Amino acid sequence: MILKTISKENYKNFLTRQEKKNFLQSSYAASKMEADGWKIEYLQGLENNTVQVTCMVATLPLLRSFRYAYIPRGFFIDYKDKATLNSFTALLKKHLRKQRVIYLEIDPDIILQERDKNGDIVPRGINNQDIVDNLLACGYIQMPLERGSDIGSHQCRWTSGIDLSKKTIDQIFSEFSSQTRNDIRNAQKYGVKVRTLKPSELSILDHMEQEAGERHHFEAVSLETYEKMYKFYDGHAKAVYAYLDLSDYEKTVVTEREKTEAEIQELKVFLKENPNSKKKQKRLKVADEYYTSLKKKEDQISQQKELYGNELPLASSMFIKYGKTVTYLYSGSDYKQRVYRGPYAIQWHMIKESVEEGYEYYDMYGISGYFEKGQEGYGVFDFKRGFNAHVKEFIGRYHLVIHPILYMLHKRIHKNI
């Protein structure tokens, strides 16, 4: 096997021929990483003029004059072909040594074992322990198989998503939990609207995720991150916003209140002539209570208009469309307005759009890897499970050590690498 450097254009052309690819392996990701200070190189391993391996290698300065190397979501390679993996690894180590790299990190886009929507292992399902064994045999060091939502700068080891392939919108909806279907219908009943945010409106998403971060005790990304996503994932990044059009909602409430008011008058006329009708008395009581609740809603709408204008912000999220997958990356919502089910409106809007545009997988992205009520991240997992999102457990992170002494020194300084 020989190792050669290829151009970014050649790498992009290679990606167009790949059935399975992750947005983190894209040239768009490379451009963003370069803007963040990474040095990017594209490599291929060839055997008899046939490409066996392709990858994007990103490096950053480490320990003064040395570097750290990272290949997001791993190589394009047949990991089950141990001989090819071993040959490429040997060449890669020599190449990285010349680049003064201390160690390489990879986190392949490969599941460890197949799991269902509850997180349970599927009997006789996919199992890629042989790939793990091959990596270990080729000199890679497996990092601890982590659970939990806060894993620093590492990629998600646990995610969940929906298989959209060969399914209609109605089939997909029918596979949601009954509670999720009801939440979507409630958002529709309130008339919640969803629209795409312009680059100049990304502060809406930023504000909502900052609030969510404070509420759930996680560090939200910056507005600059969203702006970079729009810039470097040009045409592939999409932020959407769920809101309540207060004028439209007010019209609906007023119409309902007027209808209820008319019903109350009819009931009162009837009871004046038939005072002993318990059925109508009960109906009048219910109508009176409903009328009172509608009047309260009208007052609430007036207050909301004073605070927010005509649009009541409910939730906002960012997605990446790449290859055959739509990935749900960031989100935030106004907890005070949760009754309107803004996050459900967004997810349903994007799932439908994904199907209509021919995407085959809807990646709801990171979960904690804990599946019992009361455990860390259960609420996020359960929200996604309601959409019939099946759990994915990846094989984890691996280090390929180039300079052992410097690697050990770095580990002593930074224990969580």
What would you note in describing this structure?
The model has no long low-confidence stretch (mean pLDDT 95). Helices cover 43% and strands 24% of the residues. The chain has 13 helices and 15 strands. It has 417 residues and is of the alpha+beta class. Strand 3 and strand 4 form a beta hairpin. It folds into 3 domains: 2-108 and 396-413, 3-Layer(aba) Sandwich (Aminopeptidase), CATH 3.40.630.30; 159-244 and 311-394, Gcn5-related N-acetyltransferase (GNAT) (Aminopeptidase, 3-Layer(aba) Sandwich); 247-308, Methane Monooxygenase Hydroxylase, Chain G, domain 1 (Up-down Bundle), CATH 1.20.58. An 8-stranded mixed sheet has the order 6-14-8-13-12-11-10-9. Strands 1-2-3-4-5-15-7 form a 7-stranded mixed sheet.
**Strand count:** 15
> Which band does the percent of strand residues land in?
15-25%
* Backbone shape: elongated
Please give the oligomerization state of what you see: single chain
Spatial sequence of strands, sheet with the most strands:
6-14-8-13-12-11-10-9
- Helix percentage: 40-55%
SSE succession: EHHEEEHEEHEEHHEHHEHHEEHEHEEH
Ranges where pLDDT stays below 50 over 5 or more residues in a row are none
Major sheet details: 8 strands, mixed
Number of domains: 3
Number of helices: 13
The computed structural class is alpha+beta
Integer-rounded radius of gyration: 27 Å
CATH topology of the largest domain: Aminopeptidase
CATH architecture of the largest domain: 3-Layer(aba) Sandwich
Average pLDDT, rounded to a whole number, is 95
